[in-house]
Each structure stands twice: as C-alpha cells, then as structure tokens.
Amino acid sequence: MRAATHARRAACAAAVALAATACGGGGGSGSGGNGGAVLSSSWGDPQNPLEPANTNEVQGGKVLDMIFRGLKKYDPKTGAAVDMLAEKIDTPDSRNFTITVKDGWTFSNGEKVTARSFVDAWNYGAGLRNNQKNAYFFGYIEGYDKVHPAQGAQSADTLSGLRVVDDRTFTVRLNQKFSGFPDTLGYAAFAPLPRAFFSDHAAWVRKPVGNGPYTIESYTRGSQMSLRKWDGYPGADKARNGGVTLKVYTDNDTAYTDLLAGNLDLVDDVPASQLKNVKNDLGGRYINTPAGIIQTLAFPYYDKDWNRSGTEKVRKGLSMAINRKQITDTIFQQTRTPATDWTSPVLGADGGFKDGLCGDACEYNPGEAKRLVQEGGGLPGGRLSITYNADTGSHRMWVDAVCNSINNALGNDKACVGNPVGTFADFRNQISRHKMPGPFRAGWQMDYPLIQNFLQPLYYTNASSNDGKWSDKDFDKLVDQANAETDPAKAVQTFQKAEEVVRDNMAAIPLWYQNGSAGYSERLSDVALNPFSVPVYNEIKVG
To answer: How far is CA 512 from CA 173, 294, 351, in A?
Structure first.
C-alpha cells in the first residue's frame, strides 16, 4: 500500500476534511468519553480523505485499521489472513466465490453490516468517476472494464461480477482465476461501507463512520485526530484502552523528544538520529521487529530520458554504486538489512522471498558501477536528483549517504544530490502528478502477506502503485499466469520469474528491508507492532 501510493489518477484536490473541531489535548493523559485512559501516538496527516478505497498510504491506513473491520483480518503476530466478518468463503474453481457474512455486526451509527454493505462499497471503489486510488484492487472482478475502462467514459455503474443473494450472502465472479483472492480481503479497500456514506457523502468524509473498535471523535488537520473506543463494537478484538490521540508531527526527532519529556506515549518510527541512544533512553520500552517493508528507489519512466534504451545499465550501475551494508550499519543501527530481492524476508521462502535474487546488481562494486553508467549513456541530464519527504529526519540522512556513495563510485562529487519536499502529503501529491525530476524514495509496506502484493501493485502496467509508470509485457504476462495458478507453490515460482524481469530491467533499485521500530512511555503496556509495522492499538493498555 502504503508508503508508496497508488497513483492512477490525480489526488483528490480537497484536503482531508473531517470535523475541524478543537481536539482535547496534552500529552498522554486524559480519559476517553467512553471510559478508560487515552494514549497519544505520533502520526502524520493523510494524503486523501479517509475513504477505504482512496487511502493507500501509511498514515491514513493506520486510521482505517482502527475504524474498520473487513471480511478478513491479518493476524497481528503472524500476518496470516483469518476470517473476521467472513463466516465462510467458498469456491469451486478459484474464479467464482460465495461469501457469507457473519450475523450481528453493525456500524458505529447503528446500521447493520450486510452483504450489500460490501457490494456497494466495492462498486463505489471500482468506479472510474469516483477517482478512488485503490480502484485497481477490484480489477479482477468481472465487469471492471466497464466501470473503470482504460480509456473513455464509464459505461456501467456496478461490477457485473458482484451479486447480492441475501442479507448475509453475496457472490463474486472474477475475470480470471485468482487463488489468492480471499487472502486479499483484509486490505482496507475491501472494507464495508454504511448507507450514510452514500446518502450524505460530504458529512461522512468530514467524520467517517466505520465498524471497527474505534470511532473518530474529531480531527484538526496539522494538529491531531482523536479516536475513542466504541463500546458497542461486536468483535472479539475490542479496544483495551479508552482511545488514541494521533498527534501530527512533521519531524520524528521532535516526536521522540516529546516521548522522553512525557508529552507523548508512543512513537512508531524511531528516527535514525536517535537509534544510537534509544536502548539507553527507553530500555525495554524499545521495539525493533521485522516487518513487511522494503525501501527502494523508483524512477520516472514517464520521462523519456529515463525510458530510453540503455538506461537499464545506468540503473544497474547506480544500484552497484550504493554501499548498502555501510549505510545500514552506520545510520540504521540494526533496524535495516541490505535488500537482495524486491519482496521481504517476512514472507519466508515458501511465501516467495528469495534471498540473493538480485544477484551482483545489489552488491557494492564501484568500478563496475562507473563502467555501467558510462556504457548506458551516462546520467540523464548529467546529474541525479533523489526526491524524498523531509518530515522524517532519517530520509535526509540515508539519501545523503546514498548520494555520497554514488558520487564516490562515479568520481564526481556533484553527480547526485538530494531533493527534499517538506511533507509526506506534498511529496505524494507531486508523485501522483508525475512531477518527479529523477529517482524518488519509494518505500513499500505490504497490504497483505503475499509475494503478489510486492510485485503487481508496483510494477504491473498501470497498476495502483506503479508511480513511475514502468511497463513490461513479459512481467504482466507472468503475473497473470501466477494469479491464475491454483497450486500456491507453483504460483510463487511464477511470481519469482516475474520478479526476475524486474531485476533484469532494474525497474526499481532495492535498498534495504526495514524493521518496525517504536518506543513508548511507562504508562503503556502490551505494546506491539504487527508485521505491517503498525502499532496494535486495540491491545495497548494504559496505566
């Protein structure tokens, strides 16, 4: 999803505009309106309104994970997809699915969650005229070409592959076999929506209503969002605290300082500048755990200078000019591991992770790097500008280190420079508008634990998070074949063949796998990060 955004269409011009009421506040103290102590956590403003099918970056995703529950839920310890609102999902052929929704679920406004709650939400998310960034996730459902054509106007309002049978049952017909389809249904884009979303959409956007363990009390952009425990939540994973106040920070170092000063309870991304101090500062209240996150450098293939013949050699040369081990050892203090493929070790070998798939292209070799860059025609424009969001301090540190490594390898101290953008939201908006002047930071946090999710959204032609607009027919064909494969092991093998196409073209430069890191105050207990590197907020105890 997340970290990189699905950029098929321009971002919604309106800023996220929930209830702009003043939020109660201070640091970690306070009690929720529904009873129980409230914790405070660092956060950043989402890029878009918090519609499930329009939110595909980390900050907005954190909120959706708190206010929605879907058919599946990813186990906070293992990442495995387990049934949540799905009572059962049956299929005879991996193409036709019958989904039965559990009884007894409601939205926080009292509306009942039914089969239609899912079907209406998916139809809305897929529709071209609704400009939802996650529309692509519905692309395997039959009729998507009518509601979201690649060219021209939308000719249907609903997906022909969706049919409501009764209040608790609906059917899904895909346009090809996709054995992994049920496991994708824990992703927020597939969340149900209440009728209030459609009857008064503007009011819902101002204050979203979901069916998760928390409700949104208020939000002031640039300041904070207050979420409170929903006492009527019917799920087993009820909140064990009174709520969460998400406080907006444009600098992680400031958030860390506030944590140490007692003004904040939880920092879920310890800045690189503090990693050398964090164990002494926090002791056992520091978390460093593997996560399904990879950092890469993406390229603007909509710029002809990066899409000409020979630039694959330039990209490979740049990859070999980066001393990953030195950078991860000196800057990230055991919270990053040099990447050797384009997925994540959390998948395991059976899940598709293949250590060393990148080969020598991911090994530091400055002499070969310089030769390949020259052989490929040199740097487009004679200079490399790496764009990143500057509201997280560690990005500046590693971008500077990457540029220093490239400059040393090429023997030119002006070959590579960093290009900071003030905030994550502004950074994502520039990417969505295809305004990148060169390579750019492209971290990816998995949406669900499948190799497919590390490849298809990022590299498939016109895919949801293919921000650089890379396209390769061989890659697309292999992905289609892998999705149609009913044998999981054979599907993984085919996806790895597709990943080799990414490698051979160096479609993006893999940098390192990222651990989840967090620090928390003495007020909190039972703090953990899930495999997506997001705090399991509902399990945290306060006091």
So the answer is: 38, 6, 19
> And the tokens for 396?
């500046």
Evaluate whether 140 touches 61 at the Cβ level (below 8 Å): no
Asked if 72 contacts 451 with a C-beta cutoff of 8 angstroms, the reply is: no
| Of residues 414, 413, 421, 415, the one with CA closest to residue 396 | 421
- Average pLDDT score over the chain: 91
DSSP state of 141: B
pLDDT score of 465: 87
* CB-count exposure of residue 214 (10 Å: 0-12, 13-18, 19+): buried
Q: Per-residue pLDDT averaged across 496-520, rounded?
A: 97
| φ/ψ (deg, to 5) at 392 | -115, 115
In whole angstroms, what is the distance from residue 532 CA to residue 445 CA? 6
pLDDT bin (cut points 50, 70, 90) of residue 393 is: low
Rounded Cα gap, residues 179 and 140, in angstroms: 11
Question: Distance between CA atoms of 414 and 403, rounded to whole angstroms?
Answer: 9
Give the number of other CB atoms < 10 A from CB of residue 325.
13
Q: Is there a contact between 451 and 354 (Cβ–Cβ < 8 Å)?
A: no
Cβ burial, residue 479 (10 Å; 0-12/13-18/19+): buried
pTM for the predicted model, two decimal places: 0.80
pLDDT in the model for residue 471:
97
Number of H helices, E strands in the chain: 17, 20
